[in-house]
Amino acid sequence: MTTNVREFEEIMRRRRELTSGPIYSIPDAEMEKVWARLDKKSPKSKKAYETAKECIPGGAQHMLVNKNPFPVTIAKALGTRMYDIDGNQYIDYLMMAGPIMLGHNYPPLVKKVNEAIETEGIGSGWTSEYEIKLAREVKRHFPSVDLYRAFQSGSEANMAAARLARVYTKKKKIVKIGGSYHGWADQFVYEMHIPYSGLFESAGIPEECFAQLICVAPNDTAALEKAFESAKDDGGIAAVFIEPLGGESGATPMHPDFPGELRALCDRYESLLVFDEVVTAFRLGLGGAQAYYGVRSDLTVFGKIITHGYPSSGGLGGRRDIMECLVSGLQPFKGHCFVAGTMGGNVISTSAGYWALKFIEQEKAVEKAAAAADRLRGGLNGIFERMGFPFFAYNFASIVHFETAAPVAVDIREKDGIMSALARKQAVDNFAAALLAEGIITKYGNRAFTCMAHTDADIDTALGAFEKVLGLVKKQGG
Prior knowledge:
Layout: H1 5-20, E1 24-25, H2 28-41, H3 43-52, E2 74-78, E3 81-84, E4 89-92, H4 107-120, H5 129-141, E5 147-151, H6 154-169, E6 173-177, E7 213-216, H7 221-231, E8 237-242, H8 247-250, E9 252-253, H9 258-268, E10 272-276, H10 288-293, E11 299-302, E12 314-318, H11 320-323, E13 326-327, E14 337-338, H12 347-362, H13 365-386, E15 392-396, E16 399-403, H14 417-437, E17 440-441, E18 447-449, H15 456-470, E19 474-475
Helix pairs in contact: 2-14, 4-12, 5-12, 7-9, 13-15
């Protein structure tokens, strides 16, 4: 677990070494064999993908799936296992991109949610007792949260946080850190995933949507202070949004001192600090990244982890004086901001959230998942060293990053930087496909999430698969 400056600096040093050196990838001839294996073992999934392309844009609705060469279609998930429609079994280290802490379809949680549905139905449009129970449970774990409101996704909660910050502070501008992800609302689709990428992923969004957005490079306190000064007479900064581990859950790591420095700057300039804890809440610890860093945010954005992956999962919490500016109905000229959502506090989501938090605490899921991640990280580093690769793995509790080609570490401002990032991304995609052929599901081929259900045997199986796939990897051009 990365907790100090020395460890942070070592990660950054090794990222620079990887991106300044050759690309290691699986040769095309070996990838042809991987794709042939996937074709042979998953014919029904391949056919389903062809059918999906006739009725779904791109043939897949989930940006997390590996479409190289086609996404497998999942029929069942239980514990650490996923089963596709061809009957193949996989050990899952995607965990729905983070929210699954207890294991897929954890029976006690499924039972409690089903009981709530049988009693209350799927929702009424009126208050459910579970809305109150969930809000109180969030408050119990997050001292910075006085009031909590449910939304339908992390994207929606970030939208609400930006609007609320502007109403409360009476300032206009929002700051985000380059390479961070805060959902797909217009104002946040700027420099996502890779710092300095600007409008690269912003097709369909008029540039004027970014007129009140300031993007600052990761870990650059001086640039952030300069932004505060520049904005003083130009609408002011309402809030700074951060992924508290750094962009993409620590793929671009945040300096351990940076959150505290942000807190001090926001206090000095009377702006709000917003922690986007869509991934980190209840995964880094029951108190999220705020307990991890010892820094309180003014607003906290919650996402899919707040319902353990059940749908309609998002939330916003924070100080009472700020949150009281929210209103579910229209009250013009009252200093409130309008937010809405029929499904935001539905029984399914709120009961799932309440019981998930109870079970995560009761079962010590955070600690068990982190122990599994420590073992995975240690095993990977041992394999990398033994096989003579310059690769490395690091983890924040149960979030494991393993850097082989390091596409998001590339400074795309450098000569051929964009081409290098794209080539490295292809190398990582191929790595993910090869692991899939070995029965291991990861996030983008460079990240893993563990849960409390991952056993030593699961980790050993994953390490064996990694070692086998690494045996295919060659230095580009070699």
